[in-house]
Write a structure and sequence with these properties.
There is one protein chain. This protein is an alpha+beta fold. The protein is 37% helix and 10% strand. It has 10 helices and 8 strands. It has helices at 2-11, 25-39, 52-65, 69-75, 87-96, 136-141, 156-172, 174-177, 183-189, 199-210, and strands at 76-79, 82-85, 105-109, 116-122, 128-130, 134-135, 219-220, 227-228. The longest helix has 17 residues, at 156-172. The radius of gyration is 47 Å and the shape is elongated.
Length: 279
């Protein structure tokens, strides 16, 4: 009886996804079933229809942001193979988070090419939190205005506010933005900025670009086919001529050589005139 009760308790327990659907096998199974149901819907955006993988990612982000998966799907786009938030949703996330005492505000100055804007908000301690200043000169230098179909030419005041909000979010609310750019930024940056570079491939490309950049002067012997030394022969060192203006120091005198001593042969004893034995 006790075994059946324990089995019923273990099977019937409520599985919550929490903040990470990849924390366990059972959590992932539940998320996969939810993603399959969402992928079969025709109301969700086309990026998620029939794509269980994208739906699982949307569920994961919704759990982290503590919001509805449908809200994430409606505002998370896939541009150039990368996820991107809509600019309106970035503002909505910051205002709905209650992280700041006031909603996101904008300080807009100047007109035309002199227009500048930054986003700010007041926190609960009364401090004013500001974001980076966005100017039309910056938009021109970064190429945002010259993009095909760019809204900077027709509605610059709206676009400069959206960009100021996006910069404010990545600088002061990275936990909410999760390092994801806005759709406008991804379109303006282009796919080349997201190109993955393999270090080995990059080195090979540099070798191909710089190989044989400087011509090598090789001299080959026509008869033997050997490579001759192309280095010019070394010039002989010129002997420095003595300066006649300066007196040359006298050569040091050699010490007198000692004459070798003559050794005389040993004198032989002369026989006496007296008696000599043996004779």
């Amino acid at each position: 009886m006790s075994d059946n009760k324990e089995m019923t308790t273990s099977v019937g327990r409520d599985i919550t996804l929490g903040t990470n659907i990849f924390s366990g096998f059972q959590e992932f199974q539940v998320a996969q079933r939810m993603a399959q149901a969402l992928a079969s819907s025709t109301i969700v955006p086309k990026d998620y229809q029939g794509n269980i993988g994208n739906c699982i990612i949307a569920l994961e982000m919704a759990n982290r942001l503590n919001t509805s998966p449908m809200m994430v799907m409606q505002n998370l786009y896939v541009v150039n193979g990368r996820p991107a938030w809509s600019s309106q949703y970035i503002v909505a996330m910051i205002n709905a988070s209650r992280k700041y005492k006031t909603e996101l505000q904008y300080e807009l100055t100047g007109t035309g090419t002199e227009m500048a804007c930054y986003a700010f908000a007041e926190d609960h301690n009364g401090h004013i939190v500001k974001g980076p200043v966005i100017t039309m000169a910056m938009a021109k230098a970064e190429g945002w205005i010259d993009k095909n179909g760019s809204k900077w030419k027709t509605m610059p005041e709206v676009m400069i506010r959206y960009r100021a909000a996006s910069f404010f979010g990545r600088l002061n609310c990275p936990d909410m933005i999760m390092g994801i750019y806005s759709t406008d930024e991804v379109v303006e940056i282009g796919p080349d900025a997201y190109r993955e570079v393999n270090p080995a491939i990059k080195v090979q490309e540099e070798i191909k670009e710089k190989a044989n950049a400087a011509p090598i002067d090789l001299q080959i012997d026509e008869e033997t086919g050997e490579v001759m030394d192309s280095a010019p022969p070394a010039e002989p060192l010129e002997e420095e001529e003595p300066d006649e203006s300066e007196p040359t120091p006298p050569a040091p005198e050699e010490p007198p050589k000692e004459k070798p001593r003559q050794t005389s042969a040993p004198r032989q004893a002369k026989p006496n005139g007296g008696y000599m034995p043996g004779f």
